[in-house]
Every structure is written in C-alpha cells, then in structure tokens.
C-alpha cells in the first residue's frame, strides 16, 4: 500500500469523505478491511493527545498551504461564496481544529462513520 490518505470532497449541497491509496491486487481487500477497522477504532476509542496534536498541526498546515498564493486564496473564497459562507467560517474552522476534544471527535465518528453508508470503488 502506498500513501493512503483521506480528504473531504466539498460541493455546494453536500460533501463526501474520500479515502484513497494505491495497493496491489493481492492486498486490496485487506487494505479496505483496515480502513473499516480504523473507522471502528475512531468510533470506540478517543484519540490520544499526541495523535490529536499531530492531526491538528497537519490540518492547520494544510490550510496554510491552501492559502499560498492568489489563486489558492481566490479558490477558497469561491467555495465560501458558493456555499453562502463568510470569513467567520474560516476563523471558526481554525478555532474548531484547535479546540475540538477527542471525545467530540469520537461522537462525530459514531454519528457519521457507519460502514453501511460508504461506497467502495476499486480500480485495477
């Protein structure tokens, strides 16, 4: 398995959480099982503080990277405008990343990470 990662695909009316990787055919099914296993861990165990700090720093760094240059800034504002959001959304997002607790993340995982609500797409 190479470079497994996840991201949100945001649209005007809805969003999707995407998990993506490159995996050989021989480990494809095992990789998918591991994704679901990690979802269950998020639902059943609060993240430890070290992991939470790592994710916070990564997310803040990603946002800063997304604002590196005029085209990236315009793209972010375009998304805000299309979704009827203003600059407070940006600041609220940063604040949420900085302050959300492991227990709140666990509650969100329990609400949104139902395996039966996910689709799988495998390209060979």
TrEMBL record:
Keywords carried by this UniProt record: Hydrolase, Protease
Keyword DNA damage: no
SUPFAM superfamilies: LuxS/MPP-like metallohydrolase (SSF63411)
GO MF entries: metal ion binding; peptidase activity
Example GO biological process: proteolysis
InterPro entries noted in UniProt: Metalloenz_LuxS/M16
Protein name according to UniProt: Zinc protease
């Amino acid at each position: 398995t190479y470079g497994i990662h996840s991201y949100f695909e945001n649209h005007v009316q809805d969003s999707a959480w995407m998990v993506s990787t490159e995996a050989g055919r021989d480990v494809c099914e095992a990789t998918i099982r591991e994704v679901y296993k990690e979802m269950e861990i998020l639902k059943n165990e609060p993240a430890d503080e070290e992991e939470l700090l790592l994710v916070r720093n990564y997310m803040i760094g990603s946002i800063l990277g997304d604002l590196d240059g005029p085209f990236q800034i315009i793209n972010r504002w375009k998304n805000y405008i299309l979704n009827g959001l203003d600059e407070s959304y940006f600041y609220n997002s940063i604040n949420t990343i900085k302050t959300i607790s492991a227990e709140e993340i666990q509650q969100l995982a329990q609400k949104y990470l139902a395996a039966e609500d996910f689709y799988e797409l495998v390209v060979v």
